[in-house]
Design brief:
Elements lengths: L6 H6 L7 H14 L15 H10 L4 E4 L6 H7 L7 E5 L14 H10 L5 E5 L4 E5 L6 H4 L1 E3 L1 H7 L9 E3 L9 E5 L6 H5 L2 H5 L17 E6 L12 H6 L2 E4 L6 H11 L4 H6 E2 L2 H16 L12 H20 L5 E2 L9 H5 L6 H6 L1 H18 L17 H8 L4 E4 L4 H9 L4 H6 L8 H14 L3 E6 L2 E6 H9 L1
Parallel strand pairs: 1-8, 1-9, 4-7, 7-8, 10-11
Antiparallel strand pairs: 2-3, 5-6, 12-14, 13-14
C-alpha cells in the first residue's frame, strides 16, 4: 500500500476509510483472537484494569484512567499506539492529517479540486499518531482548539473572515490520532468546557467561525481521583461525556511489585554482572513501599509511587558498586547496610502528613526501613519474644554475647573481608542462619539481616555513628549512658 502516491491509485486499491475507534477495535479483536499480548510490559492489571480498557475499546469509548501517581497510566496510553494500523494515507502537506477519500480541511478540499486523481498522497506511521499534552493551569483554548493567526492573515493577505487564517490547536491536528491529556484536573474549568462539543458531537468552534470539523479522535485522559487533590477537579459535565472511567491501583503482592521494579530499573551492564542482590533484599525493598502505603505518617491520598522501589533499587546497586570500587573489589553482594544509600529515594517519594513532618522525612524513611526489616525477618526467623517457647531459645547465645559487653560495628563502606569477620565474631548468629537453610552464597547477608531484625525487636540496640552502624546490648548501653 505504501507504494501508492496519488489519490487515483488509492481509489483503485482496496483501501477503505474507517474511524480511529473502529481501527482500534478491529486490531484489538485480531490480537484477542490470536491470543497476542495487547499491553506488553504492564504488570499486575491482567484481571482488573486491562480487561476494562479492552472493553472500552470494543465499545468505541473515550477513556479516563483514574488513579494515584505511579500506576502506569501514561504507559498504558502510549501502548494504545500498537493497536493502530502501521500506516494510513493522508493528503500530502495536510495540517489535519486528512483522509484522501474523506477530506476534512479547506486545504485538502482545494488541493483535490485542483489536482483531482493526481493529488499527492503520503503515508503516516502509527508512531506519529500519538499526541500527548500535560494539563497545566496556563493551557488555553487556543492551545487545544485554535485561534485566528494575524501573521497568517497578513502573509496570505486574507481578511479575518476567511477560515484560512485559523491556526489550529493540538486537538484538530490530532485528527485520526490518539490524543492524551495527562492530569486532567489541572486544566482550568473554562478550558474543560471547550472539550464538550469535541467529545459529544466531534466538532469544534474557533473565534465565532461557522466551522464544522467532524474530528475523528480517540481521547484518553489521566487523572488522580478528584477527591484526593486540592489542585482542581474534573467538572461533572465533562466526566459525563467520557464514556468509560477506569480505576488503576498499586501492585497487590510483593512478588508482583518486585517484577515491576526489575523490569523498570535502569542498570549498567557492570552492575548487573558484578553485584549480586539476594532475593530477600529485593523483597525488603518492596516491603518499604508497602509499609509506606500503610503508614500513619504518610498521606494515603497522595499515594506512594512504584518509582520509590525503582529508584531505590537503582540506589541500592549504586551504593554496593561504590563500596566495591572504593575497596578495589571485582564483585560484591548487596547488604542491608547498603540501604542507607536508598534513603534519598524514599524521602523524595513520600508526602508526609503533619505528624510525619514533625518527625522529619529522614526519620520516617528510617522508620519505614525498620518496619520492612521486621516483616522480612519474621518470614525467615522465629519471633525473638517467642523463640524459647516449648524448646531451645535460638537467640540465647547471641543475647549472652552482647550482654557480655561485646560491640559490633558494620561500616557502610567496609570491605567484604572485614564485613564477614565482624559477623563471624557474633556468637550463635551463624548457627541461627544455618538452622533455616538459606542459600550458601547469601549466608552472611542473612546473618546481617538477623542482626538488624534483633535490633528492631529490641534484643540489641542499634545506633548510627558517622559512617557505621554500631550494635550492642541494650542494658549495657543504658548503663554506659548512666556512667
Amino acid at each position: 500500500m505504501q507504494k501508492i502516491k496519488t489519490l487515483g491509485e488509492l481509489k483503485k486499491s482496496a483501501y477503505k476509510p474507517q474511524s480511529i475507534k473502529e481501527e482500534l477495535r478491529k486490531n484489538l479483536i485480531m490480537k484477542l483472537q490470536n491470543k497476542e499480548l495487547v499491553f506488553e510490559g504492564v504488570l499486575g492489571f491482567d484481571d482488573t484494569v486491562l480487561p476494562d480498557i479492552e472493553r472500552a475499546i470494543l465499545s468505541r469509548h473515550n477513556v479516563l484512567l483514574l488513579g494515584l501517581r505511579g500506576q502506569a497510566k501514561t504507559r498504558i496510553a502510549r501502548l494504545l499506539v500498537h493497536l493502530l494500523d502501521e500506516y494510513i494515507p493522508v493528503v500530502a502537506g495536510s495540517e489535519l492529517n486528512d483522509d484522501p477519500l474523506q477530506p476534512l480541511s479547506r486545504y485538502a478540499h482545494d488541493l483535490i479540486a485542483e489536482h483531482g486523481d493526481a493529488t499527492p498522497i503520503e503515508w503516516m506511521h502509527r508512531d506519529e499518531r500519538y499526541v500527548e499534552k500535560l494539563a497545566t493551569p496556563d493551557v488555553s483554548v487556543a492551545d487545544l482548539v485554535g485561534d485566528v493567526d494575524p501573521i497568517k492573515a497578513a502573509t496570505l493577505k486574507l481578511p479575518y473572515s476567511d477560515e484560512r487564517v485559523i491556526h489550529f490547536g493540538l486537538i484538530p491536528r490530532a485528527h485520526r490520532c490518539i490524543f492524551v491529556i495527562n492530569e486532567l484536573p489541572d486544566l482550568q474549568a473554562r478550558i474543560q468546557v471547550s472539550l464538550f462539543n469535541i467529545l459529544q458531537e466531534g466538532d469544534i468552534q474557533i473565534r465565532g467561525f461557522k466551522l464544522r470539523l467532524p474530528l475523528d479522535i480517540q481521547f484518553l485522559f489521566t487523572a488522580n481521583p478528584e477527591d484526593y487533590t486540592n489542585r482542581g477537579s474534573i467538572i461533572t459535565p465533562l466526566k459525563d461525556r467520557i464514556e468509560s472511567q477506569i480505576l488503576t491501583h498499586y501492585p497487590k503482592t510483593i512478588e508482583l511489585a518486585r517484577n515491576i521494579t526489575q523490569q523498570e530499573a535502569r542498570l549498567s551492564a557492570n552492575q548487573q554482572k558484578n553485584i549480586h542482590v539476594p532475593d530477600i533484599l529485593k523483597d525488603l525493598l518492596e516491603q518499604i513501599s508497602f509499609e509506606a502505603r500503610e503508614s500513619e505518617f504518610i498521606d494515603e491520598k497522595s499515594g506512594v509511587s512504584a518509582r520509590l522501589a525503582i529508584a531505590g533499587y537503582e540506589n541500592l546497586l549504586s551504593t554496593a558498586e561504590r563500596r566495591m570500587l572504593i575497596n578495589n573489589e571485582k564483585s560484591t553482594i548487596a547488604r542491608v547496610t547498603d540501604f542507607w544509600g536508598v534513603i534519598p529515594a524514599i524521602t523524595g517519594k513520600v508526602e508526609l502528613v503533619y505528624e510525619g513532618e514533625q518527625e522529619g522525612p529522614y526519620s520516617i524513611a528510617l522508620h519505614l526501613l525498620g518496619e520492612a526489616v521486621k516483616k522480612q525477618f519474621l518470614t525467615i526467623f522465629p519471633h525473638p519474644d517467642r523463640s524459647g517457647e516449648g524448646g531451645r531459645d535460638l537467640y540465647s547465645a547471641t543475647r549472652m554475647w552482647f550482654a557480655d559487653g561485646n560491640v559490633v560495628n558494620l561500616f557502610n563502606d567496609g570491605d567484604d573481608k572485614a564485613y564477614k569477620k565482624q559477623l563471624d565474631e557474633i556468637a550463635g548468629l551463624g548457627k541461627l542462619v544455618d538452622s533455616v537453610k538459606v542459600p550458601k552464597e547469601d549466608r552472611y547477608l542473612y546473618m546481617e539481616l538477623a542482626l538488624h531484625g534483633l535490633s528492631e525487636f529490641d534484643v540489641v540496640t542499634k545506633s548510627v555513628v558517622e559512617s557505621k552502624l554500631s550494635f550492642r546490648d541494650m542494658l549495657a548501653d543504658m548503663l554506659g549512658d548512666i556512667n
